[in-house]
Amino acid sequence: MKIMTILGSTGSIGTQALEVAKKHNIKVKALSANSNTKLLAAQAKEFGAEYVCIFDESKREELCSELGGHKAEVLTGMEGLKAIAALDGVDIMLNSVVGMVGLVPTLTAIEKGTDIALANKETLVAGGKLVINAAKEKGVKIYPVDSEHSAIYQSLQGNSMNRIKSIILTASGGPFFGKTKTDLENVTVEQALNHPNWSMGSKITIDSATLMNKGLELIEAMWLFDLKPEQIEIVVHRESVVQSAVVYEDNSVIAHMGVPDMNIPIQYALLYPERVECDVKHLSLADYGSLSFMRPDYETFDCLTACIKAVTEGGTLPAAVNGANEEAVAAFLSGKISFLRIGELVTKVLNNTQKKEITCVEDILAADKAARDYVRKAIFNAQCTMIVRLRRDFSALRLNLSILKIDN
Fold first, then answer.
1. Dihedral of the CA atoms 352, 358, 361, 363 (nearest 10)?
2. Residue (of 283, 295, 194, 210) closest to 242 by Cα position
3. d(CA 127, CA 176)
4. Are 143 and 117 a contacting pair, CB within 8 Å?
5. Among residues 91, 125, 45, which one has the least CA distance to residue 307?
6. From CA 244, how far away is CA 219, in angstroms rounded?
7. 115-118 sheet: strands from edge to edge
8. Using 50, 70 and 90 to split pLDDT, how confident is the model at 163?
9. Is the dihedral of CA 128, 172, 146, 327 positive or negative?
C-alpha cells in the first residue's frame, strides 16, 4: 500500500487527491489546511490521518474541538508543515498549498528523500534552482500535477532518447481573452473569478484571468524540463482540450489531450507509472468539432510579460514578481485595488528590484518579503493620496456651498 501526505488537503486539488486515495487504496498519513478546521477534521477522521496541521495557529483549539475523539497529533504553522514533510515511511507528498508557503516544506521533504507530487508552482518559480539541485542530489522524483506540466511529462514518456526542441504550453486565456485594457478598467472580483473551463481556488483563478498563471507555469516548465524561455511557446487554446505538447528535434509534435478535469493529472502523479480507471468524461473530438489556437496578448496581460522578463534575467527576480503578484491578488480580492492594478504593481516591482543570485533559501525569502513590502506600501500610499484628494474635494464643495448660501 502506498502511503502519502497532503499539504493543502481542503483545497480543490487536495479534495480530489483524497478521492483518488480512496478509490485506489492509498493510505493517508498526514493532512494540512490553511484555516478550514471543519473540513480538515472531517478528512482526518475519514482517512485515519495520524497527523494534522492547521497553518493558522490561532485555530489550533478549534481544530482540536472539531477532531473530537479522533486521535491525531495536531501541528500548526510552518513548523507543522515542515514536520509533516519530514515524516518517516511516506512514499509521496502532495504539495497543493497556495503560494510561497509551499517552498520550505518541499525542500524539507526532498531532504528527507520523499518523492513530491507538485501542485504548488511557486516552489519552482521562486526556488527552482535550489529545489531541482536538491532533488537530483537526493534522488527524489518530482511529479507535476498542473495539467499542462503533467501533459508535457506524459508526452515525454518512452522518448528519453529523443531530444526536445521546444514545448507548447497551452492557456485557456481566462475569462477576459480578447479584451483590451480599456475593457478591463472596471472588472469586478466576481467577473474575474468566472473561469470558462476550470474550477479552481480564488487565487489561481485570478492568476488565470491576468495570465500571471501562464507566466508562472512557463517558469515552472523551465525547471522541470531543463529548458530556456525561448524554447517555450505559449498558445491560447480556449477549449482546454490539448493540455500541452512537446516538439521533438525532428519537428514531430506529441500532445496530451483530454477533457478539462484535474483528476487525470492528480491520479497520474500519485500512481505513476500506472494508468488505471479514472472517473472523468470521455473525450469526443467530434462533439467539439473544431479546436482553436491563438497567440496571447502580451501588452494587455502584462503579468505574463513580467514573468518572462523576470526569468530571462534570472536570480531572485522570479521570486520578486511572484511575491508581488500574491500580495496584489490578495488586495484585489479584498477590494483594495482594481484588476489592472495587479499587473501594474507586478511590473513596478520587477523594474525596481535589483537582481541577486540565489545561494540559499534565505535569498528567496528576502526577495519575496521585499516585493510584498513594496506592494503594500504602494497600495497604502495610493489610499492616502485618495483620502487627501477626497478631503480637498469635500472642502472645496463646502466652500462653494457657503458662497452659494451667502449669495442667496
1. -40
2. 283
3. 30
4. yes
5. 125
6. 15
7. 73-76, 51-54, 27-33, 3-7, 92-95, 115-118, 142-144
8. confident
9. positive
Q: Over pLDDT 70: what percentage of the chain? A: 97
Q: Which residue has the cell 478550514?
A: 36
**Model's pTM, two decimal places?**
0.91
404 burial (CB, 10 Å; 0-12 / 13-18 / 19+) is exposed
pLDDT beyond 70 at 404: no
Whether pLDDT at 267 is above 70: yes
Cell of 254: 506529441
Q: What does the pLDDT look like over 53-111, one tens digit per residue?
A: 999 999 999 999 999 989 999 999 999 999 999 999 999 999 999 989 999 999 999 99
Using left for φ > 0, alpha for ψ between -120 and 50, and beta otherwise, residue 211 falls in left
pLDDT of residue 403: 72
SS (H, E, C) the chain: CCEEEEECCCCHHHHHHHHHHHHCCCEEEEEEECCCHHHHHHHHHHHCCCEEEECCHHHHHHHHHHHCCCCCEEEEHHHHHHHHHCCCCCCEEEECCCCHHHHHHHHHHHHHCCEEEECCCHHHHHHHHHHHHHHHHHCCCEEECCHHHHHHHHHHCCCCCCCEEEEEEEECCHHHCCCCCCCCCCCCHHHHCCCCCCCCCHHHHHHHHHCHHHHHHHHHHHHHHCCCHHHEEEEECCCCCEEEEEEECCCCEEEEECCCCCHHHHHHHHHCCCCCCCCCCCCCHHHHCCCCCECCCCCCCHHHHHHHHHHHHCCCHHHHHHHHHHHHHHHHHCCCCCHHHHHHHHHHHHHCCCCCCCCCHHHHHHHHHHHHHHHHHHHHHHHHHHHHHHHHHHHHHHHHHHHHHHHC
pLDDT in tens, 284-327: 999 999 999 999 999 999 999 999 999 999 999 999 999 999 99
CA 372 to centroid of chain Cα atoms: 17
Which of 243, 76, 94, 238 shows the shortest CA–CA distance to 168? Answer: 243
Q: How confident is the model at residue 40 (pLDDT cuts 50, 70, 90)?
A: very high
CA distance 14 to 241: 23
d(CA 391, CA 396): 9
